[in-house]
Amino acid sequence: MLNFPKNLNRKLTQRKENNSLRYISSKKNKIDFSSNDYLGFSREKSISSSAEKLIKKFSNINGSTGSRLVSGTHELHEIVENQLSKFHNSDAALLYNSGYDANIGLFSSVLQKGDTIIYDELIHASIRDGIRLSNAKSIKFKHNSLEDLKKKISRSEGTIYIVIESVYSMDGDSAPIIEISALSKKKNCLLIVDEAHSNGVFGINGAGIVQEFNLEKEIFARIHTFGKALGCHGAVVLGSEQLREYLINFSRSFIYTTAASLHSISTIKNAYDQLQTTNSIEKLRSNIIYFKETLSKNNLSSSFIESSSPIHCYIVSGNNRVKKISSILQSKGFDIKPILTPTVPEGEERLRICLHSYNTHKEIEALITLLAKK
User: Fold this and answer.
1) How far, CA to CA in Å, does 322 sit from each of 24, 191, 341?
2) Close Cβ partners of 101 (under 8 Å, ≥ 6 residues apart)
3) Is 32 in a helix, a strand, or coil?
4) Within 10 A of 24 (CB to CB), how many other CB atoms are there?
5) What number of CA atoms fall less than 13 Å from residue 205's CA on the CB side?
6) What is the Cα Rg of the chain in Å?
């Protein structure tokens, strides 16, 4: 066996010494306060059974057989893209194999030399990676700060893009999207919104925060992912027909990969069909309200980042301390993971608690009662 490079081993050792080494563990039989399966769609049998029937209707092949530009585009891909563009009130839609692929493909191809991209300092890692692969100048602004964003716009040149998340994945808070949209329009910037954690949660039938505030026509591009509330896999970029045409021609993570299988595409279609009739969205919203009310009754609200989303973060400074509390909660049957440095800044380590439509009030109350004793 070849020797592992010393410089790589040194980085692993540093992680171990900082108590920040990541590891993979399979799901255990615990109460789920960890997953992004907000609506419980990943376990919804009607979605999986409908997906199987739809696959048989179109084809019995296991794989898509190639990239979208060669042999991988099937009729079902086009049906679902049309479905998503109508559902999200967009001119066009382009499917990607994952949210990471969508963000890499969009930002690396659209941003050009001489352009400026201004991004919220808490923007997702996949967006940062896409920006790094571009030739544009990048500037970050203070989280949700309109004043700092104005300053950064004044220092920018070329075509100016602004990117935000409607709901931030590690804080659970929301962007001031109405104000940022208005500022973007006033300053002739192009606004891009990642809706990964608002999809299926906010807006009519879970269409997202952009549509909740009727801002669809003000946004250059939207990214919706399906691995959270939709309970499946993949993503879509929404925008103009011209943007879709451009991505088909220049987005490398779309061009140079095998297309998603028909099983994945069928599951996406049926998950979106389910959004039209499900009562899970209302159950989730009810649980979010109950969680916040119970926090207040236990005088814990000040320890949490303000959030109206399914994501609620309890700040516990220090990797050692947050891991210890997480371990106690795990031993009591609650699946809650610690979020460590370097995923979040040092001193802002936290327990990330995700709420779901299937969590009971009894489970929520038991969890908060435990936290109140820490």
Assistant:
1) 18, 36, 11
2) 235, 253, 254, 257
3) strand
4) 4
5) 12
6) 21
What one-letter code names the amino acid at 355? L
What residues contact 67, with CB distance under 8 A and at least 6 apart?
255, 256, 257, 258, 259
Quick one: DSSP state of residue 339?
E
Alpha-helical runs (H) found in the chain: 6-17, 45-58, 75-87, 99-110, 125-132, 146-154, 177-186, 209-212, 241-250, 252-255, 262-275, 280-297, 319-331, 361-372
pLDDT digits (tens, 9 = 90+) for 118-173: 999 999 999 999 999 999 999 999 999 999 999 999 999 999 999 999 999 999 99
b/e 209-246 (16+ beta carbons within 10 angstroms → b): bbbbeebbebbbbbbbbbbbbbbbbbbbbbbeeebbeb
Query: What sign has the CA pseudo-torsion 201, 204, 209, 211?
Result: positive
Residue tagged 């999207």 (tokens): 177
Which residues on adjacent β-strands are paired with residue 239? 92
Cα–Cα distance list, 251 to 96, 102, 134, 222, 223 (Å): 10, 9, 11, 15, 14
- Give whole-number Cα distances, 137 to 119, 160, 221, in Å: 11, 10, 19
Which residue is listed with tokens 């692929």? 101
Chain segment 296-315, per-residue pLDDT in tens: 999 999 999 999 999 999 99
Nearest to 47 by CA among 280, 244, 366: 280
| Of 160, 161, 169, 233, the residue nearest 195 (C-alpha) | 169
Please name the amino acid found at residue 65.
T
Place of tokens 């109350």: 365
How far apart, in whole angstroms, are the C-alpha atoms of residue 97 and residue 258?
A: 9
Q: Provide the whole-model pTM.
A: 0.95
Q: How far apart are CA 120 and CA 140, in angstroms?
A: 6
